[in-house]
Amino acid sequence: MAGGVVVNGGGRRRYEGRVTGFVIVTCLVAATGGLIFGYDIGISGGVTSMDIFLERFFPAVYEAQKKATGENQYCKFNNEMLTLFTSSLYLAALIASFFASKVTKAFGRKMSMLLGGIVFLGGALLNGFAENVEMLICGRILLGIGIGFTNQSIPIYLSEMAPAQIRGALNIGFQMAITIGILAANLINYFALSMGEKGWRIALGLAGVPALIITIGALILPDTPNSLIDRGHQEQARDLLKKIRGTDNVNDEFDDLVDAYQKSKQVENPWKNIMKRHNRPQLTFAVIIPFFQQITGINVIMFYAPVLFKTIGFGNDASLMSALITGIVNVVATAVSIVCVDRFGRRALFIEGGLQMIVTQVIIGVVLGIKFGVTGTGTLNKDDANLVVALICMYVAAFAWSWGPLGWLVPSEIFPMETRSAGQSINVSVNMLFTFIIAQCFLRMLCVMKFGLFFFFAGFVVIMTLTVFFFLPETRNVPIEEMYGVWKAHWFWNKFIPDQMLGHHANKNVEKC
Ligand code: BGC
């Protein structure tokens, strides 16, 4: 051991220090920001399947739904105004994440988290008290801005605070909070269903609770050492590092952070820099990971589970119950990834999850194809319906321990300091863009492609699993400011990384992938 550095089994470097209670609590508090995103994902599907809500704000959908009994099962709820309600949030988040990137870089991760919490709170109030569609949509835009800020800053916060050896687990706290938010929303939907007008108001307004949690959390959290150094507070950063690593000997990690900062200072404009050749691998993944995450089709289940279950023949109550079951599976399977991600690595989870999603989607497509055919008429008997729910659960579990958490973890850990904030906003915006496109198009796609929709998503999962297999290097256990070494050791990306990009320790610490 020298200068606070230990070299572990794989030849990779570890800084001295231990996993402190302080770093765990700090990361847990920051991760609660995922609750607002999750709550929102879960609540809209339930609210938009409540008759009283539809009758008041979307009368055309309500009428069409009443008439549709016994007709084409695939085309029941195809209405653009309704999907605009769900999707407006994602467009707002997409744009907001670019502003967030500036705030996060110039004023710190904490500031973006705080702003996100406050704006989201405003949106929750507007929705809870909505009198017309306009208020509803404005509220959702505020929610979207809030999410744009928190999703941009929190994954970076977590990846920077965490010691490298448990960075995956701590970062996945964010996805854990997302899934808990979705589950809470599903539960609230279930009870709200029987509460009449009050029901949807409570469901939408309660989004204020997680917003308060992250707002207060952001007020009390320290900023990350990386961001403190980046903003000229070196001594504060050193003290914080001692506290979060539980040792006074933080010289080596501190020097690496300062080294990363010195390099980052030479970069005037992160947006120009991110386009440069040496950032090509990171940029590529900041674009394709969120795209792939969404094209798994997960949000078809998350947004439309109640609608989807209704479509395939469950009653009102049964459909919300099934959504609850998928919600629980989602949380539990995310816990699995927390345990596995720093042990088996990101690639193993990506690949296993991908294979499991392919198999389950194909079987769902086949079952629905046999039962509803292309005309979309017919019903599922009890056994078939149970089979479909079981398959959906296996699919959700696969997503929840792979593309769900890793879609936030990997983009937040692969960029160097100078482009990390910009890179993460690209991740958020691509994620939101495709969440939007899928939310907007799903009902129409189901109507046109019918059971083939499941084959469509499965086809993409094949492509993405192969992409990970060939092109994504393993980032497990690598200190965040040493990532260039990972690309340098990769058979395809090495030619993009000139030697001078490597940190002064990196060369000795990289495993060949
Ligand atoms: C995704 C969301 C998805 C959620 C499901 C997140 O990682 O970004 O789009 O709804 O996981 O748990």
Task: Tell me briefly what this model is.
With 513 residues, the protein is mainly α. 75% of the residues lie in helices and 1% in strands. It contains 24 helices and two strands.
Number of domains: 1
- Molecules bound to protein: beta-D-glucopyranose
- Multimerization state: single chain
Share in β-strands: under 5%
Estimated radius of gyration: 23 Å
What would the average pLDDT be, to the nearest integer?
Answer: 88
The CATH topology turns out to be Growth Hormone, Chain: A
Order of helices and strands: EEHHHHHHHHHHHHHHHHHHHHHHHH
The level-1 CATH class: Mainly Alpha
Which CATH architecture is right? Answer: Up-down Bundle
Helix/strand-derived category reads: mainly alpha
Number of strands: 2
With strands numbered from the N-terminus, the spatial order across the biggest sheet is: 1-2
Biggest β-sheet: count, sense, barrel? 2 strands, antiparallel
- For the termini, the CA-CA separation is 25 Å
Number of separate helices: 24
Estimate percent helicity: over 70%
Question: Any idea what the shape is?
Answer: globular
Q: In CATH, what is the homologous superfamily? A: MFS general substrate transporter like domains
Low-pLDDT residue spans: 1-11, 504-513
Report on the architecture of this protein.
The protein has 24 helices and two strands. It has about 525 residues and is mainly alpha-helical. It has a single domain (about 15-60, about 80-265, about 270-505), classed as MFS general substrate transporter like domains (Growth Hormone, Chain: A). A two-stranded antiparallel ribbon has the order 1-2. Helix 1 (about 20-30) runs antiparallel to helix 7, helix 15 packs antiparallel against helix 20 (about 405-415) and helix 18 (about 345-370) packs antiparallel against helix 22 (about 450-470). The longest helix is centred in the C-terminal third of the chain and has 33 residues, at about 415-450. The model is unreliable at about 1-10 and about 505-513 (pLDDT under 50). It binds beta-D-glucopyranose (BGC). The site of beta-D-glucopyranose has 15 residues, from helix 8, helix 16, helix 20 and helix 21.
